[in-house]
Structure formats: C-alpha cells, structure tokens
Specification:
By secondary structure, this protein is mainly α. Helix content is about 95%, strand content about 0%. The radius of gyration is 50 Å and the shape is rod-shaped. Pfam families: Phasin_2 (PF09361).
C-alpha cells in the first residue's frame, strides 16, 4: 500500500515538474499560431493589393490615374508599416509571455527543489534517528552484558578469595597441627 502511494507521489511530482515546461510550450505554440495566422492574412492583403496595383497600373492613361497609382502605393507602404508594427507587437507579446512562463517555471522548479531538499532532510533525519536508536539499544545490551560479566567476575573473585581464605586457614591449621605433632 505504501509502495503504491509512493509511486503515485512520484508520478504527481513528475507531472508537477513538467507543468511549467508545458506552459512554455503552450506559449510558443500559441505565438506560432498567431504569427502564422497573421502572415496568412498579410499574404492575402498583399496579393489583393498586388492585383489592384496591376489593374491601376494597366489602366493609367493620364495624370489623374498616375496620382491614384501614387496614392495606392502610399497606402501599400502604410499597410506594410502597419504589418511590421503588428509583427513587432506579436514579438514583444511573445517575449513577455515567455519571460513570465520561464519565471513561473523557475519559481516552480525552485519550489520543487526546496520540497525535495525537505524530503531528503526528513528522510536523513529519520535514518539518523533510527541509527541512533539502534546504537543506543546495542550500547544498552553491551552495558548489560558488561554488567553481567562484571557481576560474574566479581562473584568468581569472591568465591576464589573465600576458597583462598579457607585454603589458607586449612593450610595454617595443617601447619600448626604438624608443628604440634613434631613437638611431641
């Protein structure tokens, strides 16, 4: 059960890690769609303007037609300049959206790194705590073994001392009895 929950958490973290980059990709795709749509519309306008220009140029017969042709060229130049401004605005909008998307991605990545660092710290603390608990248990059991060994050694030494005293008193008795027999 815990393993399934961990796997689910890993998938959630992976999804969250990729989310900011998906936003960056969406911004790029949206901008490309806008730019392509604008370029298609501009090509239609220029195509229409080109055919109109040819019609006007073909029908020019006097000064009034030439003036109309000049006005047409002027409007064509105005349209080109307007299109350049629009493309520039699209570029600026794209730059701003990408900047915002990268900023969000960066802050989200920083947040994820912080979360990961916290998880690692918690896991490390847990491992250290468990190791300290085990070391404490081992130290306590070694202390108990040392105490038991000390008690056994002390009791053996006491018994040895008692047997040494009784052996010495027997030896003293036997020496005194031998001395007593030898005097007789």
């Amino acid at each position: 059960m815990q393993r399934e929950q961990n796997i689910g958490n890993y998938f959630d973290q992976a999804f969250n890690a990729l989310e900011p980059w998906a936003r960056v990709n969406n911004v790029m795709i949206d901008n490309m769609q806008k730019a392509i749509q604008f370029q298609l519309e501009a090509m239609q306008r220029y195509s229409h303007l080109g055919t109109e220009q040819l019609k006007v140029a073909n029908g020019s017969r006097d000064i009034k037609d030439a003036q109309q042709y000049g006005d047409f060229i002027s409007s064509w130049v105005d349209q080109v300049m307007s299109d350049f401004r629009t493309m520039s605005d699209l570029g600026m909008e794209f730059r701003d959206e990408m900047s915002q998307a990268f900023s969000e991605a960066g802050s989200q990545v920083a947040h994820q790194v912080e979360d990961l660092s916290n998880h690692i710290n918690e896991a490390s603390k847990q491992v250290v705590d468990e190791a300290l608990d085990k070391a404490s248990e081992v130290a306590e059991s070694e202390e108990e073994v040392a105490k038991e060994t000390m008690d056994k050694t002390t009791s053996a030494a006491s018994k040895s001392a008692e047997s040494g005293k009784s052996g010495a008193s027997r030896s003293a008795e036997s020496t005194s009895s031998r001395q007593g027999k030898s005097r007789t």
